[in-house]
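Predict structure. Chain length: 204.
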Amino acid sequence: GKIVKIAQEHNVTIIADEVYDSFVYSGDKYKSLVSFPGAKDIVVQVNSFSKVYAMTGLRVGYLAASRERLLQFLKYHHTVNISANVPSQKACITALKGPQDCVAQMKAAYQKRRDVVVERLNDIPGVHCFTPQGAFYAFADIRELGVPSLDLVQYLVKEAGVVLTNGSGFGCEGFIRVSYAADIAKIEEAMDRMKKAIVNMPVK
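Prediction complete.
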């Protein structure tokens, strides 16, 4: 609630990116900012169907906010892309109204993959990784390797055939982002290749 109180005091709008709200591994359900007193007037919730229903190709997202703010967003939205295509919207409605077992199954699968990724990353000399509490990415600390994150991901693509994202793209130089949205067999193979490539990486 502290963030909401500060925003209220300074008349600031909070844009809450909640696309991973269904994938929280702490044992508790995600608590949205709008659940705090007075938050509905200052919080804009941003969400999509891409993550929770694995519908990334349909590109359908949505906002939840006060009517006043939504009217302002609509002006911009109509200028940029008018609307999402109708078949995609109907598919999303079907997903919302259908059985939700798949969400729990995906969450359980991601949690198992997360545990494998974190353990394997921490097994690589010079790489350290905390356990993510949500989503399906691990953010590993590579500063001990003494290599810029972009250089490392380019090296791993070339030498290991493993594609990662450099942390500098997120404002965090010295880190790499590893997605575990793949089956465990592929993750294990990728970790084997990464470790071998990093252990044999030429010292600059």
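Summary: The chain has a mean pLDDT of 93.
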